[in-house]
Amino acid sequence: MFWLTHEAPACELRTLLLLEPMENPPHCVECFRASVSNLLFHSIHWTHSTQWFYHLGVHNSVYLMTTFTRDTEIFRDEDMLREDYQPESITAREEELEEYRKALQPVVNGAQPRNIFLYGKTGVGKTAVSRFLLDRLQRDTEQYDDLDLSVYWLNCTNLSSSYQVAINLVNTIRPPEEEISTTGYPQQRVFNILYDELDAISGTILLVFDEIDQIGTDDEILYELPRARSNGYLESAKPGVIGISNDFGFRDDLSPKVKDTLCEEEIHFSPYNGPELEAILQERADGALFDNAAEPGVISLCAALAAQDSGSARQALNLLYNAGELARARDDSQITEAHVHDARDELEQSQIEHGMRELTQHGHLALVATLHLALDGDTPARVREIYPRYRTIADQSDIDPLVRRRMHDHLADLAMLGILDRRSRNEGRSGGQYYEYEFSVDLETVRTVVADLEGVVLPDRVLRQL
Fold first, then answer.
1. What CA–CA distances, in Å, run from 99 to 103, 104, 113?
2. Residue 367: pLDDT band with limits 50, 70, 90
3. Beta-sheet strand order (sheet of 433-439)
4. Are 314 and 281 in contact, with CB atoms under 8 Å apart?
5. Closest Cα to residue 438, out of 449, 423, 450?
6. Structure confidence at residue 36 (pLDDT)
7. Helix/strand/coil (H, E, C) string of 193-230?
8. What are the backbone angles phi and psi of residue 335, rounded to the nearest 5°?
9. What pLDDT digit, counting tens, does each position of 383-441 carry?
């Protein structure tokens, strides 16, 4: 039920929603009441030159419709299902929490902090546990007058060298108006600026590098920072490094000196199992969803699907959130298992599109070459059939093509991502063994991604299909 108010100059346009059209819109309250008594909602317009205040009675029961209203059936607080939500407690990571707490104990004691390396798949709680414990560490150390703790976070995504990490760390510490340029400095000069900033802060400083594996083999900063005090670069600051990685192989690829320095304490986060994911989801859902917003079995289904795939809490939360979004969009009062299955299909589609967009330049060339053949009806195709088209597209795009073997590696990557199907063929002595490739995803999805590619000149045959 809505209250109608009107206080406007003559001839000002007003809009009211009714369910059926009115041939002659009313111009006064009495006419309006007479006209709407048996009408359903639709759009009408009127003008009025006097002031009036009127309430539609229960017997007439006409409701004005608004464009936006708050959820009352599905989401109570949907932010609790978001990736960046920080829970007040950590579920199903008791052992890792205890290991982590012990590794951080020297900080509370005022000693040089240990360097800690966390590794595990995406979505298994590394960052959430780190934020939870470090927040409490900062809170608990406030009671000690002789202890000054600072924590700085740096996400290393798109940072491929020690130089870039050092520059971004300086700019994380400094206020925006004092940031330094990302180019133009010798590396040692940047390191010296960083040391000056750390000494100016003084006390115990924990530097958290999320996605640390992104820096690749240029890992000098991971050796220099933990040893900066013992090497005489720092006087009043005691730095400690916490590295977080999704790449199990990154630790093995570190240089021996960095491995000895960074990996003083190692904590492995294994994938969650089904019951653990269900406990995490249930805890979040209790706050995120209204009572009875999900049918029985929905939480356990989301947990089971994520456990079978990746063991990722992030995937389980995304499944539940997207299932809720579908229920809301369809005006359903509950999240059902059907919504969960539909949400999984949509998420898989989104992940495939994201995977295609994030390919390297030569990955995109291989993708377009295979699409060219598919549009001509020439797939499944062998590498010897894809490679000539790849070379042509590379030449037209002014990109140096790779040799056939290296291009084949990119086709294998596309198969690993689920974009292509790869089948092994063996024709014996006459034909030998080879692979054939064809798309495992809808070509419309591929065309959508290819249409947005930059730096790749598309063949006319592909352009005509976009």
1. 6, 9, 15
2. very high
3. 381-382, 433-439, 420-426
4. no
5. 423
6. 47
7. HHHHHHHHHCEEEEEEEECHHHHCCCCHHHHHHHHCCC
8. -85, 125
9. 999 999 999 999 999 999 999 999 999 999 899 888 999 998 887 666 678 899 999 99
In three-state secondary structure terms, 44 is strand
Query: Do residues 332 and 339 lie in contact, with contact meaning Cβ atoms separated by under 8 Å?
Result: yes
CA–CA dist 191, 169 (Å, integer): 10
- Measure the CA–CA gap between 218 and 163, rounded to whole angstroms: 9
What is the per-residue pLDDT across 299-343, written as a single tens digit (0 to 9) for each? 999 999 999 998 999 999 999 999 999 999 999 999 999 999 999
Which tokens in the block code for residue 341? 């299955």
Q: What pTM did the predictor assign? A: 0.73
Distance CA(362)–CA(394), nearest Å, equals 8
Q: Which residue has the higher pLDDT, 292 or 58?
A: 292
Q: Find out whether 190 and 247 touch, Cβ atoms under 8 Å.
A: no
**Number of C-beta neighbours around residue 269 at 10 A:** 21
State the Cα angle at 114 between 113 and 120, rounded to 5°: 130
Q: 88 phi and psi, to 5 degrees? A: -80, -15
d(CA 66, CA 73): 17
Helix (H, G, I), strand (E, B) or coil at 33: helix
In this structure, are residues 128 and 86 in contact, taking their beta carbons and an 8 Å threshold? yes
Q: pLDDT per residue over 169-186, tens digit each?
A: 999 999 999 999 998 999
Task: Say which residue the tokens 């607080």 belong to.
Answer: 77
Question: Domains of the chain, with CATH numbers?
Answer: 3-55 (no CATH), 96-269 (3.40.50.300), 274-354 (1.10.8.60), 359-463 (1.10.10.10)
Return the DSSP state at 115. Answer: P
d(CA 451, CA 461): 13
The counts of H helices and E strands in the chain are 18, 12
pLDDT number for residue 452: 92
State the burial class of residue 249 (Cβ atoms within 10 Å of its Cβ: 0-12, 13-18, 19+).
Answer: exposed
Is the pLDDT at 112 greater than 80? The verdict is yes
At residue 260, the 3 state secondary structure works out as helix
Which secondary-structure segment (H or E) carries 319? helix 313-329
pLDDT at res. 7: 40
User: pLDDT-derived band of residue 31, with 50, 70 and 90 as boundaries?
Assistant: low
